[in-house]
Specification:
Shape: elongated
Radius of gyration: 20 Å
Distance between the termini: 69 Å
Strand content: under 5%
Helix content: over 70%
């Protein structure tokens, strides 16, 4: 077996070797090392905490099944993250109904900037808002905003057109912006009532 993990920290190198050998202690250590970070990733794609935890468990099962395929190119965390995202996507691919492709002229769209959506909100509130999006909007929003993917990549991954990806992102941003505006109006009203 060829190990090309020279760039990995020693503890990760040993964990990978232990997981390849199906050592329960190594699997447990790897899980404990990355579970919290990966749950945060899974929660962005899930509708609830329970669903996020299901995705996390399924993802780690895949990690342990395919760890032999980890080539050591890039970080171990990045490799695990990609598995979690793919696990979340495969869970929803058959369930979601993405909007049909429409012609979208991005220059004419009045879409809020991601910074406008995110600046005055804490992480827990943002997660709750993202989870409230329809699956199609949530997946495209997450892939574009958090995973840094381009519309072409999203379209290929989900089997949709670039126009559909752009439209879903635009709509997701609009929904989030409206939710934030509504939330802010309620908070302003509460302050005035006091």
């Amino acid at each position: 077996m060829l190990f090309k993990y020279n760039h990995l920290p020693d503890n990760e190198h040993l964990l990978v070797k232990g997981c390849i050998a199906s050592e329960r202690s190594s699997q447990s250590k790897l899980y404990n090392l990355y579970a919290a970070k990966m749950l945060a990733v899974c929660m962005r794609y899930a509708k609830s905490r329970e669903e996020g935890e299901d995705i996390l468990q399924e993802g780690f099962m895949r990690v342990f099944t395919y760890i032999k395929q980890f080539k050591g190119e890039g970080s171990l965390e990045g490799w695990i993250r990609k598995i979690m995202v793919n696990c979340a996507l495969s869970r929803y691919k058959s369930k979601i109904h993405l909007k049909p492709a429409i012609e979208l002229n991005i220059e004419q769209c009045n879409t809020p900037d991601d910074a406008d959506i995110i600046t005055n909100i804490n992480a827990k509130e943002l997660l709750k808002l993202v989870q409230s999006l329809t699956p199609a909007y949530r997946i495209v929003f997450n892939l574009y905003v958090f995973e840094g993917m381009k519309h072409r990549e999203i379209a290929e991954m989900l089997g949709i057109s670039e126009g559909t990806s752009k439209s879903n992102l635009s709509d997701a941003r609009g929904v989030l912006q409206k939710a934030l505006q509504s939330k802010n109006k309620v908070e302003v009203y509460r302050r005035k009532s006091l």
